[in-house]
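ARCHIVE CARD
Drawer: 12
Card no.: 0347
Subject: one protein chain, sequence and derived structure
Cross-reference: see card 0346
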Amino acid sequence: MSAPAHPQAATSEARATAASSTGAAITAALLAVLGLLSAIAPFATDLYLPAFPQMAAELGTGATAVQLTLTAFLVGVTAGQLVFGPLSDRFGRVPPLLAGCLLMVVAGIATVLAPSPAVLIGARLLQGLGGAAGMVIGRAIISDLATGKAAARAFSLMMIVGGVAPVIAPVVGGFLVEPIGWRGILAVVLALSVVMLVAVIAVVRESYPADRRLADRAERLATGSPLRALRSRAFLGYTAVFTFAFGVMMAYISASPFLYQDMMGLDTTGYGLAFGANALALMVVSAVSAKLAATHDVRRLLVTGIAVLLASTLVFGTLVALGAPAGWLALPLFVGVGSLGLVFGNATALALGAVPAGAGAASAVLGAAQFGLAALVSPLVSVGGTATAAPLALVMTACAVVATGALMVTVRRG
């Protein structure tokens, strides 16, 4: 058989071969490991939040320095995705992934033993850089092995773990902070990092071999710019949908302590139950989305999820504007968080599916946009203090409206 005449033909043939082996390649064990990779950074972000007062007291510093440990981690996660994504396109998925996992383990040891706020801040920055590798490369691996409905199903299953992690982490941290302290909580993150490294070595195999890397590189160069594929309207549109839908969830997570406890009057246990109920809704809908993706159009599932998300945020905003009892706000939040199970996996599959020749770089842009917006959204929801949910309603509604607009434009042009 003669070789394909053009790089594009070679790339298409390579992708077709990979797609034909999807059923065997994406195993339950691989999905579980990829779910852990997607969850570790969000878990490390939120798990130690309840320990902030204890950290400030023991380290003899103020709240600002403790907050910088979180900011440094988020900066590391954002920058790390932009570094490890392109590296995985050039050198394959496994070597950069192992390097990132090892960096997170080493940095995790430094966080547990940190003698001062400055050392802790630096270690958290490196920990974020390492954790980003798992998130960005995990998405790229699925994009390597599956397309269309199969990819949407795999992303939805992976999101059951990755999407729920930032929701349940503060609750788990709240239970752990008293018995084991903030160093103990960071030791839990370290233990998870070690598990992640071992799991990658045991389960993950190269999904982007050298022949495909060469063919895709030739295709990108033939178009005139390696980054040209990332200007795809479909990629940018679905990335915006994913990013701003995630903004809704981050706004909810950031405001949830004062909303449930200060405004609704729930104690710590009640807060944990309310938080857990919303996390359960997200998990269940993600599982349903994965099942529906096998028989339904992925775009229709995404449209349904965004429609429910927009409706729930509008209802939430209306209740806040009318001064309804705070307890009523829990219902639209439950529906809105649950609807994200139809959004995250399907939007990710559609975004990365639009640029298969640069899945690593595309995954990097997707993740950097996600955490970049999260860093902007989180402080906005508390500008009015703890006596009103109006800032939360405005931020959630604005993010939902932008996600809806991006989806409408993308689907119409597609």
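Annotation on reverse: The chain has a mean pLDDT of 83. The domain at 25-220+231-413 is CATH 1.20.1250.20 (Growth Hormone; Chain: A;).
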